[in-house]
Amino acid sequence: MRKPRTAQLELPFGFRRTVLTSQAHICLDGRLVSYTVKRSRRRSSISLTIDEHGLRVGAPWQASPRAIEDLLREHDAWVLRKLAEWQERRPSPRCWQDGETLMLLGQPLRLTLVPDQRQIRVDGSRFIASPAWARNADEMKKKVTDWLRREALQCFRERIAHFHPLLEVSAPEVHLSNARTRWGSCHIGGRIRLNWRLIQMPLRLVDYVVAHELAHLVEMNHSPRFWKTVARIVPDYRARRTEIKTEGHRYLLV
User: Which CATH class is domain 152-251?
Assistant: First the structure.
């Protein structure tokens, strides 16, 4: 019997190391750009990735710094444009003071500090919290984040309960993820992890991610059959997938 497929972090012995990560810099069109180089013995070509963590270069183990720099200069316009786009997507730093905007299921809420408030609650467009917590930004952040995580888990369970019978699959275990670049994942054993930050997005985008991960319980791949499975419960998944890629960052204030 084959073992269940799972993802796990393995720490190889030093003398068998197959991945090496380092930092480097390059000047592109007059701008100094920092980037991370991740070398792997399994790689056969150089790749460029840009996300909220900045520029990352995947390179074969023996690739020379010159080869990496030549590729970056060849694609300098693309690199600078993508870095600028991600910089624009980054939310403003939270001060965790009265009047700041938070998001819940796509709706903006105004952080309102009310004396003698012992727990967080939402009242219309107000996100009500205690001013005592605002004296320490870390404490306020933790209070708000913990509340959002509880809301997220309840919401995800409700949406999974709604969708899983439509695919005729058993209700999976649901866990929260804290990933920065991944919305969800599915384990072949029947466990789903969903990013708690999704609770800030409109329900239609939450539903797309839930449907996507549930569909993996039927097809553990991204084949045409997989997308047909997604379409059974979210017929306009293409539009929602595009929206979460292009507009999702606008809701991520925490």
Answer: alpha beta
